[in-house]
Amino acid sequence: xxxxxxxxxxxxxxxxxxxxxxxxxxxxxxxxxxxxxxxxxxxxxxxxxxxxxxxxxxxxxxxxxxxxxxxxxxxxxxxxxxxxxxxxxxxxxxxxxxxxxxxxxxxxxxxxxxxxxxxxxxxxxxxxxxxxxxxxxxxxxxxxxxxxxxxxxxxxxxxxxxxxxxxxxxx
Length: 171
Description:
The chain is mainly alpha-helical. 78% of the residues lie in helices and 0% in strands.
């Protein structure tokens, strides 16, 4: 009897893991889609306006940004997927904050590239950083793995805010 129970337990565990992986993949795809949609605001500005801006010496090459953001969106999707599949309390709050920070993230491209307004984009990046930190804290109370997956996103948002602040100061 014990062997049958153990085997069924393993099957249930594998099923739960598969459901978690599927949810994480779906959330990652949604985050990538949101990033792709927000990148539409960059059209034209990347070729004409952005190169004319003075930027700090530590600005990464342009080709790094889409690679970095793609990785970060995947990690963010994994993070929210883990939060949503967890048994912990506070999932609704964490999910709401996650959605708010994703909205702030999408808004940044429109403000910076679409409106060509680095100062307004800086204000948004500060809000984005605060919301990202709040989500990371909420996620940590639910799933340490979710918080760990999201940490690179928070660090990159801080770096992006610093870059944005330098662009404002230099232009």
